[in-house]
Design brief:
By secondary structure, the protein is an alpha/beta fold. It has 10 helices and 7 strands. It has helices at about 25-35, 50-60, 75-85, 100-110, 120-130, 140-150, 165-175, 180-185, 190-205, 210-220; strands at about 1-5, 15-20, 40-45, 60-65, 90-95, 110-115, 135-140. The protein has a 7-stranded mixed sheet with strand order 1-7-6-5-4-2-3, with helices on both faces. The longest helix has 15 residues, at about 190-205. The protein is elongated.
Length: about 220
């Protein structure tokens, strides 16, 4: 069951690209989609880089995009293609019900967000809704969608592509704190802090900690 906002009647056939790095899930999703007469699966991709390449080559109407893929994440791919190809819609797929990931996906330009395990009917309805110009969110995240729509001020946060936790780590980097101190402040392990920093560097396309601190301070983070 999904919560959706929709507009006009959809086109007859929707050309879909599937992007997921788990072969079993990808194969199962393709089988489900082949049961939907209004959908044509035009390709598959297993990494972020491959997804971008296939989008440029195939120009699908819609991408069913895994959140986490090797290399460039699904959210980063979405952020890249949305301004360049606004006619291509993205429905994000996730294994987890995670508010921060959901908000990052929506801010990146995703038109839908479903938790993996959605039924054929839910997927068909989601594709149809998005192709009609609407947005669709799985029932599991519907309350987050309403929060997002009712609180547009969240868009003014610096670095909206970051999760709240990643932004908190970045703010402490801007304050000049080392990994061990950041870990103690946030109740994390040093390894987890390093993982957060790697994701921050990738999302902001920066090379190192110094550049991260400079950008963070320019955006108003830090004390």
């Amino acid at each position: 069951m999904t919560a959706n906002l929709e507009l006009d009647a959809p086109p007859e056939t929707t050309r879909v690209l599937i992007a997921d790095d788990h072969p079993v899930y990808l194969s199962g999703l393709r089988m489900l989609l082949e049961l939907i007469s209004s959908v044509e699966v035009v390709g598959e991709a297993r990494t972020g880089k491959e997804t971008l390449s296939e989008i440029y080559r195939l120009r699908p109407h819609l991408v069913l995009m895994d959140v986490n893929m090797p290399g460039t994440s699904g959210i980063e791919v979405t952020r890249t293609i949305t301004p360049r190809y606004p006619e291509i819609s993205v429905i994000m797929l996730s294994m987890l019900e995670d508010r921060d990931t959901f908000l990052s996906a929506v801010r990146a330009g995703a038109r839908g967000y479903l938790v993996k395990g959605a039924s054929t009917g839910d997927i068909e309805q989601a594709i149809g809704t998005v192709r009609r110009g609407g947005v669709v969110f799985g029932a599991e995240v519907a309350s987050w969608a309403l929060d997002y729509l009712n609180k547009p001020r969240e868009l003014s946060k610096p670095f909206p592509e970051l999760t709240d936790r990643e932004r908190a780590v970045l703010e402490l980097v801007a304050d000049g704190l080392g990994n061990a101190t950041i870990a103690r402040r946030l109740g994390l392990s040093i390894k987890t802090v390093r993982n957060y920093l790697s994701r921050i560097f990738a999302k902001l396309q920066i090379a190192d900690r110094t550049e991260a601190a400079v950008q963070a301070r320019r955006a108003g983070l830090g004390h």
